[in-house]
Amino acid sequence: MSFSPAFTIVNRQSEWQAALAMLGAALVIALFPSAVSNGGFTALMLCAIFFMSGCLRAASLYANGNWPVWGRVMRVLAAIVGALLWLQMALSQVMWSYPLGYVTIDVPVYVVLALGEFVTIYRIMADGRPH
Question: How many domains does the chain have?
Fold first, then answer.
């Protein structure tokens, strides 16, 4: 496989990290369904969502360097999905922990990951140069 200058890990580091985080979460849920407190079906669905999101992100990063027009569109869509996923995780943690009298430390992590996705969307849209 040859790497074009547009296909670099360094320039897309935060996006690769998000893809790997999603794939890692899918793996943890697949191996330990009890990591999700709402039962096996929810764990299976969440595992599938993380897996598909991680694969979408990785495919969009590959396509960006090899599919000039639609690669950028795929990256934007993957970042939107990522932002929604991380915000969903943050909201889920708030709804679970707040009634217990606190908010888990996970919430700011997920919010920062979502903000990173919004920065990614901005960077993609600001780079309107044709490839």
Answer: 1
Distance CA 120, CA 72 (A): 11
Count how many Cα atoms sit within 13 Å of the Cα of residue 57 in the half-sphere of its side chain: 28
Mean per-residue pLDDT, 26-31:
81
How far apart are the C-alpha atoms of 24 and 18, rounded to whole Å? Answer: 10
Q: Is 67 helix (H, G, I), strand (E, B) or coil?
A: coil
pLDDT tens profile 50-84 = 899 889 888 888 887 788 778 888 889 999 999 99
% the chain with pLDDT above 70: 82
Is position 2 within any domain?
no
CB 86 within 8 A of CB 118: no
Q: Which amino acid makes up residue 21? A: A
Q: Is residue 82 part of a domain?
A: yes
One-letter amino acid for residue 90 of the chain:
A
Answer with the residue of higher pLDDT: 10 or 19.
19
Distance set, CA 74 to CA 10, 21, 52, 63, 112 (Å): 19, 18, 13, 8, 22
Domain that holds residue 53: 11-126
